[in-house]
Amino acid sequence: MxxxxxxxxxxxxxxxxxLEAQFEDVKAQNLHLDMSRGKPSTEQLNLSMDMMDVLRSDxxxxxxxxxxxxxxxxxxGIAEAKQLLADxxxxxKDNIVIFGNSSLNIMYDTIAxxxxxxxxxSTPWAKLDKxxxxxxxxxxxxxFAITEYFGIEMINVPMTPTGPDMDMVEELVxxxxxxxxxxxxxxxxxxxxxxxxxxxxHRFAKLNPAAKDFRIFWDNAYGIHHLYEDKQDxxxxxLMECKKEGHPDMVYKFSSTSKISFPGSGIxxxxxxxxxxxxxxxxxxxxxxxxxxxxxxxHARYFGNIHGMVQHMKKHAxxxxxxxxxxxNTLDKELGGLGIGSWLAPRGGYFISFDxxxxxxxxxxxxxxxxxxxxxxxxATFPYGKDPKDSNIRIAPxxxxxxxxxxxxxxxxxxxxxxxIDKLLQTK
Amino acid sequence: MxxxxxxxxxxxxxxxxxLEAQFEDVKAQNLHLDMSRGKPSTEQLNLSMDMMDVLRSDxxxxxxxxxxxxxxxxxxGIAEAKQLLADxxxxxKDNIVIFGNSSLNIMYDTIAxxxxxxxxxSTPWAKLDKxxxxxxxxxxxxxFAITEYFGIEMINVPMTPTGPDMDMVEELVxxxxxxxxxxxxxxxxxxxxxxxxxxxxHRFAKLNPAAKDFRIFWDNAYGIHHLYEDKQDxxxxxLMECKKEGHPDMVYKFSSTSKISFPGSGIxxxxxxxxxxxxxxxxxxxxxxxxxxxxxxxHARYFGNIHGMVQHMKKHAxxxxxxxxxxxNTLDKELGGLGIGSWLAPRGGYFISFDxxxxxxxxxxxxxxxxxxxxxxxxATFPYGKDPKDSNIRIAPxxxxxxxxxxxxxxxxxxxxxxxIDKLLQTK
Lengths: 428, 428
Fold this sequence. Notes:
Radius of gyration of chain A: 23 Å
Number of domains of chain A: 2
CATH architecture of the largest domain in chain A: 3-Layer(aba) Sandwich
Structural class of chain A: alpha/beta
Strand content of chain A: 5-15%
Number of helices of chain A: 13
InterPro entries (chains A, B): AspAT_Ic, PyrdxlP-dep_Trfase, PyrdxlP-dep_Trfase_major, PyrdxlP-dep_Trfase_small
CATH class of the largest domain in chain A: Alpha Beta
CATH superfamily of the largest domain in chain A: Type I PLP-dependent aspartate aminotransferase-like (Major domain)
Shape of chain A: globular
Largest interface: A-B, 57 and 57 residues
Protein name (chains A, B): Aminotransferase
GO molecular function, one term (chains A, B): L-aspartate:2-oxoglutarate aminotransferase activity
Distance between the termini of chain A: 20 Å
Keywords (chains A, B): Aminotransferase, Transferase
CATH topology of the largest domain in chain A: Aspartate Aminotransferase, domain 2
Oligomer: homodimer
Strand order of the largest sheet of chain A: 2-9-8-7-6-3-4-5
Number of strands of chain A: 13
């Protein structure tokens, strides 16, 4: 492969003409493809259908503690569901509080509570002149949407192959008391699929924040969402690590079964220190009489225990792996060596992150749309939707069928090539 | 019956001695009875067990709009669940947004959002020096807990047999811009079982608040929770009424199926004007990807439509009616004419409200506990847990069995008599 930059203007124009013909061919097919969202496919949803039969009209709906799950009672989760999610989140059962169907909602509530009531007795953030959050980029748009909604200033921190730039994190967190948190997706990160290295986690646990109410928002959304049985990333458990370093209260950990059972109908939890959970329960007691215990029971009985859940995740992996392979193989084959984009091959999670030449991401997404392929909006992976280099594009291969994905990947690389050529031609 | 007040000191002492003997007899039985919480009984929960079989592993889980309810998508409720709750709440389908499992949680979120983001563009309440709420008393402790949690000053407004004292409501709401809301349980109110009269609702709809962001928090928790088929209260629908009066945005209406299907595993909704719902959706989009659509589908398919739900409520009534009758008959028979307490006979809802002689409620609840009967804490029906007269006690007859209830009612009236005699003896 010859890098595009090495080509002459004439060669680029010839190439462009060939690629445009291909693009028109695809466009003529009038396709409707979507690689925009980290949604499980129908085939994946079918994996959990037996869950619908777990609780029946003749079932005993009393949980281990002897509470009738059909009635009021039990604020923070039934014992068997706590055990299951504790094992999934690698923390003791007592450090788990179960909420409703969405870990995003727990994160939202956590920020909202900090705004109005502070953190373990600190000044409510709404009463401060300025509140800031660190945002490793590229990252998850819905995290950034929450902090933006509450008027929290977001500071970009570049991601590296081992996690966020920890020099920058340490410097900022230790000197600026307005910095109250950092958004992290520490394993198979959204969108890059990066898992924080041991050193990164150690450095997180050793942070000495200027703000006493600084918290690490550790969104371990993809903790057991591996793609390969023989190639798995390992992430150090942060709660224990913070405890060891004398900062037991510095982290909130979030997770859910959204991409294990059913998105929207799963169960979600927070894991944190006793002191943090006591603070959270004070609010919960006011906010709700309790979450859906029948759905907690349904999940606990369906999976049985963490081993059942891990087995279940292998079935998800079997469906997802070929899809990731299609995209990665197409990227390798079509773009490898051209010098017009870079990407990582993740070992888990839901996304592939693509970095185009600077200033090309928006145009690539628009080009792809022109041929019937919807991608996540360029910029979405940055706070305020502003990618300073306009280069990052999130690819979500989970939802389309294998057949659709082959077409989608083809459209994507065509779009990358065409936009890159236009860019290069500007300077030839 | 001779009123206790008419009795001489000697007669009271003799009576006290007889009643104490009865009380000791009951106490010796070492009972564990509970009339403290508005919890459906096991028999009532059993009514909805077939709901567990509605969605099965071989069911089509696609809703009317063509969305797979197992996956992400649909922020504010699937169409068939909206229709069901719209009919239940007597509003158009488009004025409904469905949330999770708890209307209390919606109310909490509504206040929390108003604190940080204001109401339809108004100044966030957290930025104001003072925010006040009107609280018809006696009322629902969990309403008061929310406003207390957010530091909102609560002003007691006495309940009358036709609803809150509207002269006072009109006067305060029209003159004090710090008053941002009023908590209402307009039908079969908690705890009195009072339904607001037509005039009361009309006067609510005609309010001219000094605060543009004043809202009526209309918690219609017991809208279809009748006890009798032939004696039902009728409540004018407030959304339409406010619209007619030119105040379409002045009210939020809340409801859930907690006491229709399963407490904690039901579905809950808010009904409001288009403008209010647009304001709410702005937050929802940040807070969550969507609530549990499978549970929405389960409810919609189980009840079919509002007629199915109304039929279902008759079965609840058949279980609840005899329980209310036991308590009311015992009160009538044992306390009627004694001048030591008053109560209303509600036609629906979950509670009977008892007013003792002033200064006796706490002592009565303590006395009952002494004999193994747990009542709702005295004072709970007032903001800050402070009943100025120390006279109101909430009786919740739903959870105990008929047999338990007979004993519980007996203990209760014995406790009332004994405490009242002590009170009267102080001035003899």
